[in-house]
Amino acid sequence: MRARLGDTLSRFKPLGLAHLPTPLEPMKRLSAHLGGPRLWVKRDDCTGLGLGGNKLRKLDYVLREALDSGADTLVSGGVVQSNSQRQVAAAAAKLGLACHLAVYHGRLAAPSADYDKTGNALLNRLFGAILHDVPWTGDRNRAISALAEDLRTRGRNPYVVPYGVSSPLGAVAYASTMVEIASQREALGFAPTAVVHCSGSGGTQAGLVAARHCLPAARIVGIDIDAEPERVRADAVAYGRAAAAMLDQPFDAEDVEVVAGHAGPGYGVPHEATIEAIKLGARLEGLVLDPVYSGKGLAGLIALIRAGRWTSGQDIVFIHTGGAPALFAYRQSFD
To answer: ∠ CA(266), CA(164), CA(191), 5° rounding?
Structure first.
């Protein structure tokens, strides 16, 4: 199954923007601290370009389509400290494309005075992206599409990269993660009971579930970080079903598990459990997690372990989706 899926993925001709495969490493000190299952971390923070992150896997495939269409401009969007925007901007710079970003304001209150000047916001400008401030309405892609249409009327040939690079093709790309984990766990000599990750725009979870037959005994567990678990699950199901069809893989919506209750007060707002998880990851494993995505994902994993979901004899893989630059915009949370 893994070899066949790998062959299918190769037909999409990824650009090679990401450094793959990313490492799969044991988290021995965190495992001992929690006294639960053996923990492993899939280092998708190490994908390279633009300080890395899980979105580069998706962009490897999605931007092949952009180049094939003759696009001269990438258009995407997200909140001020969006990890996705940063990776789109870096990829545009690498490929010699213009980049315009719809930057949403109003989804969350700025946690620091320099929130819009540091972290990912600084890197977006450094990579040469042109930023367009727009109000948050709850619709993730409307302002992005409107920006692309405006650029089209001005003679550009834009390609829309959806919010979070979440789409059926983005999910197809993220299926490569499961192919890698399946190969790496064989070399390391363990069989994961679950693959746990943060889930927001749905594309990452969709890709993992679309390829879950590479690891049929492993449950895919998404930790809702948006405080919108029903919407997150619906998007993951929709993208996952479409991606599985593109990959000629079976798909069962019952395989899409989104765990609620670990998003804190809302999207982009770290709570006590998030701060604890970030500190534990740093002090026990030297990992740098962010307060919006990966930190909340690890907080959810820790909570499930403490609740007794898994035993000490089991192995759990946590996917580190990246996001370190955003940490600097939340520095006051760690004073």
So the answer is: 90
Task: Identify whether residues 135 and 196 lie together within a single domain.
Answer: no
The domain boundary, picked from 138, 164, 190, lies at: 164
State whether 218 and 156 are in the same domain.
Answer: no
Does 1 score more than 80 pLDDT? no
**Residues 197 and 257 occupy one common structural domain:** yes
* Residues 239 and 271 both lie in one domain: yes
Specify the pTM.
Answer: 0.97
Our CA angle for 17, 60, 147, nearest 5°, is 110
Is residue 133 located within the same domain as residue 201?
no
The answer to whether 82 is a known catalytic residue is yes
- Within 47-165, residue ranges assigned H as helices are 55-68, 83-95, 119-126, 142-153
Task: Let me know the angle formed at the C-alpha of 96 by 166 and 12, rounded to the nearest 5 degrees.
Answer: 45
Q: For 22, which DSSP code?
A: P
pLDDT (tens digit per residue) in 307-335: 999 999 999 999 999 999 999 999 999 98
User: In this predicted model, what pLDDT tens digit does every residue of 47-99 receive, in sequence order?
Assistant: 999 999 999 999 999 999 999 999 999 999 999 999 999 999 999 999 999 99
Q: Are residues 183 and 300 in the same domain?
A: yes
Q: Which of 82, 166, 167, 199 is catalytic?
A: 82
